[in-house]
Design a protein that fits this description.
The protein is an all-beta fold and 216 residues long. 2% of the residues lie in helices and 43% in strands.
Length: 216
C-alpha cells in the first residue's frame, strides 16, 4: 500500500535548508514524479438544480377580540368566599332607629345586603354585613379577618354570577360610616365587628372592612 508523504533534500546553494519536494512514496522506495491534476472548471462542478419559484405567503387578517357582554346587575341572594369557607344566603336589610340613634341591621345567621346601596354587578358600593360571633345570631363572618388581598368573593343573583377580587382590608372605628359611601367603581364592602368588646354598650370597638372590586 502506498503512503502519501513529503521527501526533503538539501539546498546545495549553501544555505543548508531542508526544502520540501512534493513526491509520492511507493512501496519500493522509488521516487515517482507527481502528476499534476487539472483543477475542475466551474462548468464541471456546478449543475443547475430545479428552478424554485418564490411563493407569496398571504397575510393573515387579524381577528378582533370580542368584547365581553356585561352582566346585568342583580339583587344578591347568595355569597361564596372560598378562602374562608363561607357559603351563605344573602338577605336584604335596612336601618332602624333606637333611642334617637340610627342603626344598620345585621341579620342572624346570614349575610345582609343593605338595600339602599348598589346591587352586585353595577357601579357603586354594594355593602354587606355579618356577625363575627353571637350565640343567638350566628358567626357567618367569624373568619373574615383571615382574608387576603387577591381573594375572590362570588355573589349570585337569581340569574347571574359576579366575581369580585379583594383590594383593601382595614379596621375603622365603629362610628365610621364613610365605608358605606357610594363609589365610582363596582365595589363590594364586607363589614363585621372587631376590636375590643365593650360590655356597657354590648358591641365591639371597631369594624373590620374588606373591600373588593368587580372582576370584568
Amino acid at each position: 500500500m502506498a503512503l502519501a508523504g513529503m521527501a526533503y533534500y538539501i539546498d546545495q546553494a549553501g544555505s543548508g535548508r531542508a526544502l520540501p519536494r512534493p513526491v509520492a512514496l511507493a512501496d519500493g522506495g522509488e521516487s515517482v514524479r507527481a502528476t499534476p491534476v487539472a483543477s475542475p472548471t466551474v462548468a464541471e462542478t456546478w449543475t443547475p438544480g430545479p428552478r424554485v419559484t418564490a411563493t407569496r405567503v398571504p397575510t393573515e387578517t387579524p381577528v378582533p377580540t370580542p368584547t365581553p357582554t356585561p352582566v346585568a346587575p342583580g339583587i344578591p341572594v347568595r355569597v361564596i368566599i372560598p378562602s374562608i369557607n363561607v357559603d351563605s344566603a344573602v338577605k336584604e336589610a335596612g336601618t332602624y332607629w333606637y333611642e334617637k340613634q340610627l342603626y344598620y341591621e345585621t341579620l342572624p345567621f346570614v349575610v345582609a345586603h343593605y338595600r339602599m346601596t348598589a346591587k352586585v354587578g353595577e357601579e357603586g358600593n354594594a355593602v354587606f354585613s355579618g356577625h363575627v360571633t353571637s350565640r343567638n345570631a350566628g358567626n357567618v363572618f367569624a373568619n373574615l379577618y383571615k382574608m387576603q388581598l387577591g381573594d375572590e368573593v362570588l355573589f349570585f343573583s337569581d340569574q347571574n354570577e359576579y366575581r369580585y377580587v379583594v383590594t383593601d382590608i382595614k379596621l375603622v372605628d365603629r362610628h365610621d360610616v364613610s365605608v358605606m359611601d357610594p363609589t365610582k367603581d363596582a365595589t363590594a364592602t364586607l363589614i363585621t365587628c372587631a376590636g375590643q368588646w365593650i360590655p356597657a354598650e354590648g358591641q365591639y370597638s371597631e369594624r373590620l372592612i374588606v373591600r373588593a372590586k368587580l372582576k370584568r
